[in-house]
Amino acid sequence: MACLQDQLWVDIGFHGGVIPGNADELRTLIDAGVKSFKAFMIDSGVDEFPASDLATLDQAMPMVLGYVVPMGLLGRIWARQQPSRLSYF
Fold it and tell me: Residue 83 CB: number of other CB atoms within 10 A?
């Protein structure tokens, strides 16, 4: 480990969650230092992190436009649910 002295640094960032009903909170999270967001499109297995749907993304995406904040989507969107109007991807 001595070989890493003055050569190893740790940087910490926080992910914010996109869940149904929290779109109005996303800019506040960015201002507080959140570096990226993720949304589960299927059951996350965590009660506090319910699955998002296309309506949730429709509300969330305009709130983060203009910020350099990646958003990860985890899960599946079935082909029959993918409208062509999702122009922000």
Answer: 8
